[in-house]
């Protein structure tokens, strides 16, 4: 486990070891992040004893009040929600088993039973007037349903004043509010009191903690890293847009994501007509229109109409990866010449309108305009 402290200039963060570390974590744990692995960033300070989590009370409440004033937070199902503070108790047993219970009106409701171990962590230092950043990865060790039930009962008994069946190592009283941004990331703001027993916890000093957890990724690798680090910079460090956005040339810039998406679809720029080969499963009215106007009865879609849609390679020879590499496909040379349409509408010179579904038409992109002569004649004699 690395305990290295790394100095970083906040203005250069997108070219720093912060990005390198996050990139490695996402690469190594991509399939488990948000499931059994947890990537978390928290603010704190470096002391002689190491990193200490926590911010000032003034910073904490100013940030919390600002976040509460925003209206873009959601619940786990994506529905808009106004976050509220939960009164929680976390009871920590041997083997890092933690039971979290929510207290309300004198009763306790179990929120989670987990056993997590931090396996990777790095601490980054910025300007002396700024908080330090700890980024860590914790992995969850599985617990059987029987174990979860036993630990839950032990925690409830302990909180209600009865002896616990397991030894209690630590008790935390937490006033926590969670800001969930579209299930991309969660900001947890927690006023925490910690003690070795329930009897002492309310007399313990309060630590004000700010954490940002990455949710289960639903975007690509680069976009996920951008969203997460942008949230850390924007929400936790309140940095200006110039710092929150990576350089335009960076593969983590949103513009790169758009280019990658275009590359993954193999978008092509037409230079001529498109010979439509099929419209399987759909109405063939556009193909019929093309054949009717072509002297040879071929389904040639004129360039003037074809360019109204976006076209991509139907069977690319290779596909880009999320790491900027590529891998070959098993497409044959003949297949690699085929194009397929994106959804849209075609309006002909004579006023006909064709609505085209995505991937409705597969065809061959021609290098010339096969109907150029007939198109010129129509233009000269519109009747």
TrEMBL record:
Signal peptide: none
Entry-linked SUPFAM superfamilies: CYTH-like phosphatases
Superkingdom of origin organism: Eukaryota
GO BP terms, alphabetized: mRNA processing
GO MF annotations in UniProt: mRNA 5'-triphosphate monophosphatase activity; polynucleotide 5'-phosphatase activity
Reactions accelerated catalytically: a 5'-end triphospho-ribonucleoside in mRNA + H2O = a 5'-end diphospho-ribonucleoside in mRNA + phosphate + H(+)
Source organism of the structure: Blastocystis sp. subtype 1 (strain ATCC 50177 / NandII)
Name of this protein: mRNA 5'-phosphatase
Enzyme Commission number: 3.6.1.74
